Amino acid sequence: LAIDDGVPPKTATATLTVIVQDINDNAPTFLKEYRPVLPEHVAPRKVVEILATDDDDRSKSNGPPFTFRMDPNADDIIRASFKVEHDQKGANGDGMAVVTSLRTFDREQQKEYLIPIVIKDSGNPAMSGTSTLTVVIGDVNDNKMQPGSKDIFVYNYMGQAPDTEIGRVYVYDLDDWDLPDKKFYWEQTEHTHFKLNEDSGMITMKHGTPDGRYNLKFKVYDRKHTQTDVPANVTVTVREIPHEAVINSGSVRIAGITDEDFIRVWNYKTQNVQKSKAERFRDKLADLLNTDRENIDVFSVQLRRKHPPVTDVRFSAHGSPYHKPVRLNGVVLMHREDIEKDVGINITMVGIDECLYENQMCEGSCTNTLDISNLPYMVNANKTSLVGVRVDVIPECTCGARNFSKSESCRSSPCHNGGRCVEGRYGLSCSCPSGYNGPRCQQISRSFRGNGFAWYSPLDMCDNSHLSLEFITRKADGMLLYNGPIVPPETDETLVSDFISLELEKGMPRLLIDFGSGTLELRVKTKKTLDDGEWHRLDVFWDTENVKLVVDFCKSADISELEDGSPPEFDDESCQSSGTVPPFNEYLNVNAPLQLGGLYVEPFDQTHFHWHTMPNGKGFDGCIKNVFHNSKLYDLASPGLWRNSVAGCPQTEEVCNTQESTLRCWEHGQCVGSFSEARCQCKPGWTGPSCLSPTTPTTFKPQSYVKYALSFEPDRFSTQMQLRFRTREEHGELFRVSDQHNREYGILEIKDSRLHFRYNLNSLRTEEKDLWLSAVTVDGQWHTAKVSRYGSAAILELDGGEGRRYNETFNFEGHQWLLVDKQEGVYAGGKAEYTGVRTFEVYADYQKGCLDDIRLEGKHLPLPPAMNGTQWGQATMARNLERNCPSNNPCANVICPDPFECVDLWNEYECTCGEGRILTPDQKSCMDKNECLERPCLNGGTCINQDPKLRYRCVCQEGFWGENCELVQEGQTLKLSMGALAAILVCLLIILILVLVFVVYNRRREAHIKYPGPDDDVRENIINYDDEGGGEDDMTAFDITPLQIPVGGPLPDMPAKLPFPPLGPEPNVGVFIEEHKKRADADPNAPPFDDLRNYAYEGGGSTAGSLSSLASGTDDNEQDFDYLGAWGPRFDKLADMYGQEGEESEEEEEQ
Questions:
Q1: Which residues of 581-616 are buried (b: 16+ CB within 10 A; e: fewer)?
Q2: Local structure of 81: helix, strand or coil
Q3: Residue 538: exposure state from Cβ atoms within 10 A (0-12, 13-18, ≥19)
Q4: Do 475 and 602 fall within a single domain?
Q5: Where in the sequence is the domain holding 940, given as residue range(s)?
Q6: Based on the domain organization, do 516 and 644 belong to the same domain?
Q7: How far apart are CA 320 and CA 969, in angstroms?
Q8: Ranges assigned E (strand) in 77-211
């Protein structure tokens, strides 16, 4: 495109053609794959005619005519057996080779011959190459058969193998192409678990055959030699291999031998039985892994290419539990030469990786996928046969961690460390045991002691990658991460020199990365060193050319933003560094173990891989956590191999255990902190200093919102939001922060059923950025959303943030500050705009949903009506809210057809099967759900499916326990150190001393208390019977008879009582009371009994009590009985009796 300088400017386009001139840089090869068959015992003759081809441009004379000749370095037996002649007129003048035999051949001596042929083209300069011709010797049935025996080993994947061919009946016969002349029969009756093909002799194992050892006996007939009833015995061993063994398997690729050669026990040259290469390989693995031979399973041997042969072998090792693939492959890689020598094989790849060689399978991102088939793979080698698991490594041209096209399933066992996988309508979640805080129950941290390391699976190959980790240390030097070669290369292997190294050097980060064409080194000179005993984060980004290293989200950058509209200034020298990798390789291809905290072996000579510089490799002393690669969080609990390294971070956990506020943090939170201080970070839904108080959710109705006034000043450079939400609505604003005029803002919202975070940091014009997740969030379940903004970079996470629940933008461009109005700029549920004095409208209204546990910068904000304020802020306005988050009872008027039942899914119902049951294939009924298909039992446990209520049960192997065999049995004996025992005894002694002091103190205190004597007790209801009163002897002193109330004694004659008062005039209450009073006075047996007490005198010499207590009685003049008049007509007489005296006194005063 060309543009001139005129007004208006004129443009024109022109096409430039670049012609690439061909040079002769490709050697000629065979036109096709030739495998001629030469029958045995025939006279010398022509075997085959061979043509050639060349990839160069023949019009430039860079191809034919070709010339052929036998390689002068060919073996003597080849040169003595075959002749290669060049025919220059053949193939229309292009030239061809004629191969002729020089003698007769016997297949029983050798089945194939490999002839190396040199082909040369006519280019300038001429190119030549060597191709190998395979001549197969054909068989003639010229030998009689003899009795034979055969061993067949069957690995039954999860016990689910269908009817499977497991091998052919074997009799000793030098001929192997005489099958049409033979017939095969059972010696007696057919076995219940096996079938026989009488024509081919193929044995088929039926579906459902249990584990065990089976001895099968057959008879064979050869019609050419008229042989009958030749016996053939076959021993079949069936062993179930679990899914866990397959996914934790190591693998090697072997060149030069077929799958049959690898398992064959019969040596044709020596005519005797020898140990197969598979058995020798198994013995060597047991020796290297220091385990019993029975714990090693070589369960898959598959031929990948016939000519020249390439075979893939897969193996597992059962320790406690199965060894990780990274350990198996790493051990084989470090001892490859010994294995090749002892077993007699040529290993070309350890850890089969179809993505290892750049641009071979994919041009760009490449991810290996393990495809496991229920259809077994049979290798039949005459005297032995192996039926293994068919496992294929499929290269997918995508970045696996970011490929969300496949739906999530619990069948892939995504939850680590015994976590329980739960499938929902729109995804799955993991219910994790205590101590595993990752979204898929990962152990997120690991500690190193300065001379250790830990191995994990290598980094996947993605053309656009992000690697991050956090660390804490007080040492200035240490290797944080290394992924690359761990042993020098072999001379004949394809060199892969890619590596990445991240380490601390003098307290500052140093990154080395090499795509195979040169090493790039990046350093960041931070304002202060990172060995300060605080947590720090490193982020590494790379694509096909550019690499960037960021420290602590660039929080230490110098920022200047003026309000006059001038461009902002962002000085990132102290927090990030970037560079370009040397050309021309574009991708990081690694398949050796990822090493954290140090290196297993000392660094080797960098010239082996043409590296420009090397990592220091010094061991790291501290803790590493949250190792993410392309949003995939590494599980640091169980590395493949480790030394001087433990899970967790004991250095910070010790600080947590010494502070009272963090002692119980683990129940509903996570203790976070440095080497000097710690605090509780509560799990979603919990609050309080020790995370022991559950939060109360709030239901947001239509036109509802909460407006906050903050008591702290929000940070301008960083913003952290976190909340829980539950909804079925496709749209709604969850939370927002903004400036006074809503020009700068950060809004967390739901749009089209997805979670979004959009933000704008420029108050003068809109430069909005929008982050969103592909995961669906409107399923009526509780979800946790988290936003972390650092300047113009932002991270959006859902439910822990992995895979489709994670997204980020990490470019520090333009404005970096967000000014928040802490009085008018913080809303939950939508922003309210008043349309009148008392009317308002909520825009982007979040309705028919719930919010809970809102946090801004880690500080809990209140949610009315349950709470209106916290120390961090107040809810100044709240409308149309309801406490808690109840469902609207959708099953109230629903009747589901049998056998379905109505299930409340929160504001939605579903007629489905109950817990533990699933729909039948015809979708019309329910049947028991076989939970064992999800493989819940770990560590080799056996799953037993039970009825729907009990679901399933795991039978754990020795050394494991728990619902899913996820816990390691440490033993039943409680072992205490001498220090712990002494501490317990000291505590018991202190408690005993405190109890004794308390008892003695109480007794001495009681001795000094003075209780009042009987003479000081002046209550009139206390009668002292040791007194004599009134100068008269008290003859009844100390006699309690007056206090006794007769029980069942004679009662005075009393007139019969009517059950109901007689009809007539109202009774006289006064007369009634007077009669009863007289009757009681006349009855000597009626209580209370009279007691005469003479208070003739009082004073210091009187034994009688003081009469002053009588003053406690009330004065009649102070009594007012007028209230008796309000009791009704039945109490009129009583009111007249007590009110009469008062009326008379009033009349006398008036007179």
A1: beeebbbbbbbbbbbbbbbbeeeeeeeebebeeebe
A2: helix
A3: buried
A4: yes
A5: 933-946+952-968
A6: yes
A7: 11
A8: 82-87, 96-101, 112-120, 128-138, 148-157, 164-168, 182-186, 194-196, 202-205
Residue 550 lies in a domain: yes
- Both tokens of 1032, joined, read 């008269």
pLDDT at 1034: 47
Range list of β-strands (E), 424-505: 428-431, 445-456, 465-473, 478-483, 499-505
Q: How far apart are CA 1013 and CA 668, in angstroms?
A: 60
Q: What is the pLDDT of residues 864-900, one digit of tens each?
A: 999 999 999 999 999 999 999 999 889 988 888 888 8
Of 270 and 538, which is predicted with more confidence?
538
- Claim: this prediction has a pTM higher than 0.85: no
Same domain, 604 and 642: yes
Closest to 1121 in 3D by CA, of 1110, 1137, 1107, 1106:
1137
Q: What is the CATH number of the domain that holds 207?
A: 2.60.40.60
CA distance 365 to 398: 5
Quote the CA–CA distance of 777 and 755 in Å, as a whole number.
7
Q: Which of 285, 601, 291, 596 is nearest to 445 (CA)?
A: 596
What is the reported pLDDT for 1149?
45
Who wins on pLDDT, 752 or 1020?
Answer: 752
Residues 310 and 229 in one domain: no
Residue 1111 has pLDDT above 80, yes or no: no
Q: Is the dihedral of CA 339, 343, 345, 351 positive or negative?
A: negative
Q: Which residues pair with 313 in a beta bridge?
A: 252, 301
8 preceded by a cis bond (ω within 30 of 0): yes
What average pLDDT does the chain have?
A: 85
Q: How far apart are CA 313 and CA 252, in angstroms?
A: 5
pLDDT value of residue 624: 96
Distance separating alpha carbons of residues 662 and 668, to the nearest angstrom: 11
Q: What is the per-residue pLDDT for 979?
A: 59
Virtual torsion, Cα 75, 77, 83, 84, nearest 10 deg:
-20
| pLDDT-based confidence at residue 667 (cuts at 50, 70, 90) | confident
How many structural domains does the chain have? Answer: 6
Q: Are 633 and 414 in contact (CB under 8 A)?
A: no
Contact 113, 40 (CB under 8 A): no
